[in-house]
């Protein structure tokens, strides 16, 4: 098993080491045999070499089973091409998954009283290969255009992925297709393909216009289970979903292809706080938890989830959550809690049931 480690830019260099420390603990303790493969890509590399990611980097990533990724700074420069878009395209990572599931204890910590954590358990599935991120653009001084690509093949593929999630034992067999087909006629193909695919799999399917859904997901999140949508809508809605988590510093994500998986915190490189040691490492650590789940290591994922919840409960948090602790102090606490819980054989009874974890 080969795992690429990409810190990237900005706070990626601060939060990924905290997740890697937990990976190292399990890898060494249980002799998993994971080979870590460091890869440098991003704005820093572009400034130094003129290339943010090379063909050689892509070849290394293709040789890995999974990727743990920090953050990338993307600048407005015609010669700077999106690192993330290239990786997704080259590795065909067509499904972007962002769980909207609050960590136990976070609403109490943040004094959120107008909703309950138990009301929020949603997965946003974003088609990751086309839409407005097709990369087909014409840029001019008087007119610029971006081609929005929707194909039946990609729509059916992402709908099948989302339907399989919705039909899982821990879900409600409910899929919501989010679109704007009343204005964007290309969305009719996406909507029809998704509904037909879900129905063929026996999944209960409904749809919502994106603007209505954006309001509804914040006001009544309990109505939704698995949500599938196009590339740009999914990008925006999943960032909005961080409101339900309490901070974008708590938002993990995964990108899946048929052969590889890519895990990253949602928060970006945050250059305004980079180097200050105050970035929240929890999203990176929760992204590692998602990687453990993908690897079939349910117990270890459970331990990580429980350790993060313990940090929330004990108020060992960074300033974005009202705390006074540094990135490293929070990461060290979570690692120590993982070790403690592991030694005490926590999460052995029912490792797949993480919904009942309490601080």
UniProtKB/TrEMBL annotation:
GO molecular function: 3-isopropylmalate dehydrogenase activity; magnesium ion binding; NAD binding
Lineage top rank: taxon: Archaea
EC number: 1.1.1.85
Keyword Disulfide bond appears in the UniProt entry: no
Gene3D superfamilies tied to this protein: Isopropylmalate Dehydrogenase
Alphabetized InterPro entries for the sequence: ICDH/IPMDH, IsoCit/isopropylmalate_DH_CS, IsoPropMal-DH-like_dom, LEU3_arc
UniProt record, GO biological process: L-leucine biosynthetic process
Entry-linked SUPFAM superfamilies: Isocitrate/Isopropylmalate dehydrogenase-like
The UniProt record lists the keyword Lyase: no
Cofactor(s), by name: Mn(2+); Mg(2+)
Isopropylmalate dehydrogenase-like domain span: 2-334
Pfam families documented for this protein: Iso_dh
Swiss-Prot/TrEMBL keywords: Amino-acid biosynthesis, Branched-chain amino acid biosynthesis, Leucine biosynthesis, Magnesium, Manganese, Metal-binding, NAD, Oxidoreductase
Quaternary assembly: Homodimer.
Protein name: 3-isopropylmalate dehydrogenase
Source species: Methanimicrococcus hongohii
Lineage: Archaea, Methanobacteriati, Methanobacteriota, Stenosarchaea group, Methanomicrobia
Gene that encodes it: hicd_1
